[in-house]
Structures are given as C-alpha cells and as structure tokens.
Design brief:
alpha+beta; 3-stranded antiparallel β-sheet; 5 helices; 8 strands; about 35% helix; about 25% strand
Length: about 170
Amino acid sequence: MDRLTLKKYHKSPFKEHKEFLEFYINDKPLSEQIDALYYSNKKSILDNWTGVLGTNKHHAEIVKVKQLLSKPVSDKEIRAIYAKLSDADFPYYLERTREELANPEIIVYCCAECGDYDCGGVAITIDKTDQSVIWTVLESEKQPLRFEFEKYSYYDVLGVYLNQLLKR
C-alpha cells in the first residue's frame, strides 16, 4: 500500500507563489510524480498550479479536507467561506460550491493566481474499498497514476489535519 503524508512545500519559479501543504506519497511530492510521468521533467505543474491545502482561507481549507475525506459539508460551513457576501448574493456561491463538492473529480492543484475552481487544475478521483482509499490522478487517460492507501492511515493523516483546522 502507498503511504500519504502532508508537508510544507515551496517549489516554484515565481516568488509570488505561496508555500503550500504538499501531498507526499511514499516520501515523494505528488507534484513531482505527476511531472515525471506526464511532463518528462520539461516543465512542472507548479508552473501554473499550486497545492490546494495550506493556501486557502481557513473555512475553505476545512471544506477541502472534508471533501478529500468524503465527509458531509453543511450550508453553514459554506456560508463561513463567503461570510462577507450579502444574503442576496450568497445563493449563487452556495450552488457553485455544492456543484464542486458533488463533482467526483477533486482538484488537488489549482490556479496559482486565484485558486478558482473554474480555472481548472489537476484533479483526482477517489474510490474506496473496505480496506483502502484509491486516488487516480486524472492528468491522462492513457496512463493513469494510481495510489492505494490503507483506509485507516489515510483517514488518520487527513483527520489530524482537519482537527487542527477545527481547533483554530
């Protein structure tokens, strides 16, 4: 089985790109594994994208981790992301966020400039068995990159991070 850890990471040619929490799989950054398989190290996904964890506002970070854990997200949690919006403007963003959460493709690297879901990014799908959680990177249908994590270890890594976020 593969092993997932989260570590701070910053590797970008652009100074304005922020440090983020990288998905390390078997002690190698996921971004580097994607680069090696799909880009022959000629360029990096981090030229345009950044990791989704560690770069979001607090409430958006909680929602993203819950998405990775397949946990339900309440309207109240989504409202916290858009706390400054008026009640009249919020329904649009609620619907948009619900659509993103319902999508089986989960973005793990997003636009480095704005982080907007609509800009695209690098996505995974998550499948589950009784014993494991399986990530499939959707960068190429011809040569999928798959990782299989022991279920309890996977939930422990992301659950610990979620609990840290909830205590803030």
